[in-house]
Amino acid sequence: MRTIAILGSKGGTGKTSLSHCLAYGAYLHKQQAVMAHTDQRAPIKSERPYEYLDASDNFSRVISAVKANRDRDGLMVIDGAGNRPHQDAWITRSVDMVLIPVTNSPEDVRCALADLTRLADPKVYVVVNRWPTNSLVRAVMQRYIKPLPTSRFAGRLPEVGAMRALLEDTAWRTPPTKVNNLARQFYRVADGTLTRHQTYPLPRFDATVDELAAAPL
Ligand SMILES: Nc1ncnc2c1ncn2[C@@H]1O[C@H](COP(=O)(O)OP(=O)(O)O)[C@@H](O)[C@H]1O
Ligand SMILES: [Mg+2]
């Protein structure tokens, strides 16, 4: 399996929602999919169309799963858990790609730039989440995300209110169409970025936050 981790030191950016969304998107693209849950939130007990691994109280389960799944087809998604620098460092070394979500706030952008610097690996990309439909709000968000370096930009995912359905621990029902479309879109964005990354690898870098902020969009 290819492995993608969704990380970031900032809470509330959509790491858990997007991890479910990406595993579900892989399923909709007829891929086998595993989602590994590592945060403190109560694990989900209900069935999902993707495999669900609860590693909230035992990170070594993620380590074993990454190794065990390496030779399987499909996609494994790891939901990172906020501020755990050692786990983040292990995850970054061990996966094929890391995605850091950024939502509509300058604070998210600052944290993502700091995470890019801290993780210092070309396989770490930023994905803009909750991209607004309203053009005025979009213009504001466009200004916020300007400091993000283009070479680290995976894509934008829209605001979809019904996304919260993916975090509800109720019997699985096919989510609303907008969620299905988002899941397919996210899978294409992630798959495209990973393929591009593996085809045209960027050099390793140790840029400072200031250098990253100065990079053109
Ligand atoms: N694309 C999106 N559209 C609408 N709401 C979203 C989207 N992504 C995340 N959310 C909402 O943002 C909140 C925080 O998401 P969560 O996945 O728990 O973040 P994290 O795991 O980074 O703390 C949740 O209420 C979730 O439903
Ligand atoms: Mg979370």
| CATH topology term | Rossmann fold
Average predicted local confidence, pLDDT: 91
DSSP summary: helix tally: 7
CATH architecture: 3-Layer(aba) Sandwich
Strand content: 15-25%
CATH class: Alpha Beta
Quick structural overview:
This protein has 217 residues and is an alpha/beta fold.
Describe this structure in words.
Strands 3-2-4-1-5-6-7 form a seven-stranded parallel β-sheet, with helices on both faces. It has helices at 15-28, 60-69, 85-94, 106-119, 135-144, 177-199, 209-214; strands at 2-6, 33-37, 51-54, 75-79, 97-102, 124-131, 153-158. The chain is globular. It contains seven helices and seven strands; from the N terminus they run E-H-E-E-H-E-H-E-H-E-H-E-H-H. Helices cover 40% and strands 18% of the residues. The longest helix is centred in the C-terminal third of the chain and has 23 residues, at 177-199. The chain has one domain: 3-Layer(aba) Sandwich (Rossmann fold), CATH 3.40.50.300. It has 217 residues and is α/β, with parallel strands linked by helices. Bound molecules: adenosine-5'-diphosphate (ADP) and magnesium ion. Magnesium ion binds at residues 15-16, 39, 41.
Keyword list:
Rossmann fold, about 220 residues, 7-stranded parallel β-sheet, binds magnesium ion, 7 helices, binds adenosine-5'-diphosphate, globular
